[in-house]
Write the structure tokens for this entry.
Amino acid sequence: MNERVLRTLEYDKITEKLAAFADSAPGKERCLALKPSCSRYEISRTLTETGDAIARLLRGGSVSFGSNRDFGETIGALKIGRTLDMRSLLQIASMLENCARVKAYGQGVDSGAAEIKKDALTEYFLALEPLTPLSREIRRCILQEDEIAPDASPALRQIRRNQMLAGDRIHEQLNRMVTGSCRNYLQDPVITLRGDRYCLPVRAEYKGQVPGIVHDLSSSGQTLFIEPPAVVELNNK
């Protein structure tokens, strides 16, 4: 069927209405690219698929494909060896979970009924590969878009452990100074955090009595927040 006939029949309006039901950009593109077939086999096959789809809807209800994103850019990034950010990885996990849910629906699992008899759509559902171990691993390692699980990898687990040990040693060192050699020079007997550095609140007039790096000054100018040399290296960790 040539383009002139299709324009006369306003065929494009049909494909546009169909595309409006597609959730993803690739899906919309495929809908808009559909052309009538003159093949008896093709027509028979697609009519059978349509009939089986209606039967499935009547038997088990509709299935939601969720929010289907276009992963073309993500796949392109992987092909050239780029590292994906956490948001992209979570989107992949969500897509794989949707895939698992749709496959379960196709096999009759969601409805709780007996397995659906094989029909013209069965092969489409069987072709879905949810990669469940991968989606579970992504969820285990990434808690949210800006937070990685402490045990996401053995190396990260060791880093976090070293940080905790360093933090304990910092507090041990500073507590000895707060209760010992520096207690008379402090505004308050506490350990404070300035940026990511643990400091002591030293009274300005005793600045020379407590050596270290000055990281901040109180609004009144009466307190200096000093990082003693004994904890500089530990703070760096």
About this structure: The CA atoms of residues 31 and 76 lie 23 Å apart. The mean pLDDT is 89. Strands lie at 142-144, 147-148, 192-194, 197-203, 213-217, 223-227. The domain at 155-236 is CATH 1.10.1420 (MutS, DNA mismatch repair protein; Chain A, domain 3).
